[in-house]
Q: What sequence folds into this?
């Protein structure tokens, strides 16, 4: 009996009509993002590559011209920047005391941006915000003279210097937004190409209400053109799998991951991570990942190093 059983097993294992295939597996990764203790860095992360795709000092750019909308502009709100849409002529003196400032909605809603719909007849006042040392980066007049899908023609000047400059901002067709610096008056290479990043770890300006206050928070913004996220505060992280996906509603809200996965204790002066918040993410390739934060400090005890677990969900 033993001999016959052995022969049957050999034949079944060697059936030339079948090729054994190992089932797909995924690996739980632990990643740490180096924002720095003063949050000076902006870090773009690619889920499919499980790697940082680019990193920059947050003060290196001021505005981003979006390619997925009708002449819309975002602020680099990591700098605490803001905009005033005025009825001034470009050569008028500007009374900042009467400014009515606006900020971008952190949701990324294209109808709720500080620059609103760009009007070539309007003069915009841009407060560039603060550099990494907390010093003002200056206030500029900005007028958009010509808009098309290839370039924006811009007239600009610091409000106190009247040093008018007219220049063309050439748009990068491979990126979600073209980054421009009013310090160098040049396009700067900040974000990766649109399909090469999913998450942006950064500071950004959050507008709170009742009472209204603007505050710099530190968290994650998504690539809202290619990436969607669902938030799960019910299930255990380890129990979330591919079969769970039908339970989720995926959204492309830019700040859906945001900053609220951590909290600050004013007595200990320390941050802690909320252990009941999980994120399920879909990238542009249609791959799914689960993610949760586990720390905000590095091994030396320095803040500004968000650590998270990440795992692809395999069918």
A:
């Amino acid at each position: 009996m033993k001999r016959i059983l052995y022969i049957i097993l050999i034949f079944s294992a060697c059936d030339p009509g079948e090729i054994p295939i190992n089932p797909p597996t995924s690996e739980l990764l632990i990643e740490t993002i180096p924002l720095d203790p003063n949050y000076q860095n902006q870090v773009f992360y690619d889920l499919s590559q499980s790697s940082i795709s680019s990193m920059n000092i947050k003060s290196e750019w001021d505005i981003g011209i979006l390619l997925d909308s009708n002449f819309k502009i975002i602020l680099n709100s990591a700098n605490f920047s803001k905009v005033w849409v005025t009825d001034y002529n470009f050569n008028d003196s500007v009374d900042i005391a009467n400014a009515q400032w606006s900020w971008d909605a952190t949701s990324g809603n294209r109808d709720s941006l500080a620059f609103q719909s760009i009007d070539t007849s309007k003069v915009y006042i841009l407060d560039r915000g603060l550099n990494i040392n907390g010093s003002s980066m200056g206030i500029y007049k900005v007028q958009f003279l010509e808009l098309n899908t290839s370039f924006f023609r811009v007239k600009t000047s610091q409000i106190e210097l009247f040093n008018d400059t007219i220049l063309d901002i050439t748009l990068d067709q491979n990126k979600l937004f073209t980054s421009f610096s009013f310090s160098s008056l040049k396009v700067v290479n900040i974000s990766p190409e649109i399909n090469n990043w999913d998450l942006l770890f950064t500071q950004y300006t959050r507008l709170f209400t009742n009472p209204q206050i603007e505050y710099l928070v530190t968290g994650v913004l998504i690539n809202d053109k290619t990436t969607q996220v669902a938030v799960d505060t019910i299930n255990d992280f380890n129990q979330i799998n591919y079969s769970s996906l039908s339970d989720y509603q995926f959204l492309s809200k830019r700040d859906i991951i945001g900053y609220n996965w951590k909290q600050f204790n004013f007595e200990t002066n320390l941050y802690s991570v909320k252990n009941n918040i999980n994120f399920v993410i879909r990238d542009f390739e249609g791959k799914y990942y689960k993610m949760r934060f586990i720390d905000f400090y590095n091994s030396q005890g320095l803040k500004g190093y968000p650590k998270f677990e990440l795992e692809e969900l395999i069918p």
Q: What stands out?
A: The chain is about 5% helix and 40% strand.
